[in-house]
Write a sequence for this structure.
């Protein structure tokens, strides 16, 4: 290895090597398809994000109901408490936080799988979520594929322990 030049390191760009590395680098695998018949309730105060996530999950084969308000999500859960296999909620929302929503969901249905999504995760958040019975805390800025993989893993573990939720119903908006 040649000696370092005075004042720092020198970097050499090898375009052929870079092109070769791009060709042989492993490509990420797409998330597996959804377990059949799984229903998700997704809550976030950002309209665009609710639309994006519900569409992406639907394309993967999940039945998804998206809400921008916690009270509407709770009303849907009250109307059909066993219709959802998984509830995913954003942590920071106006009025009711994701942890408050999770607390209410789990008070009514202790076996419900709940995940909280946040852009800022602390050990305190993880501890509080675990104390409430939240099964996963998902870091929001992660890629959609990582989120889908987490959802799939959670629902696959439920698949062995209980039957799927009720068949999708038409919902009045």
């Amino acid at each position: 290895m040649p000696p370092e030049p005075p004042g720092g390191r020198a970097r050499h760009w090898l375009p052929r090597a870079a092109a070769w590395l791009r060709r042989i680098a492993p490509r990420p695998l797409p998330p597996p398809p959804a377990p059949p018949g799984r229903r998700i309730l997704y809550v976030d105060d950002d309209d665009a994000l609710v639309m994006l996530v519900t569409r992406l999950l639907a394309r993967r084969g999940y039945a998804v109901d998206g809400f921008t308000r916690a009270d509407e999500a709770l009303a849907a859960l009250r109307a059909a408490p066993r219709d959802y296999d998984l509830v995913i909620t954003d942590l920071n929302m106006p009025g009711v936080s994701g942890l408050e929503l999770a607390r209410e969901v789990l008070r009514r249905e202790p076996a419900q799988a709940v995940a909280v999504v946040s852009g800022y995760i602390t050990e305190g958040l993880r501890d509080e979520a675990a104390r409430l019975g939240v099964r996963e805390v998902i870091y929001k800025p992660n890629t959609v594929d990582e989120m889908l993989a987490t959802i799939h893993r959670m629902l696959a573990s439920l698949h062995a322990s209980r039957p799927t939720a009720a068949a999708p119903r038409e919902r009045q908006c």
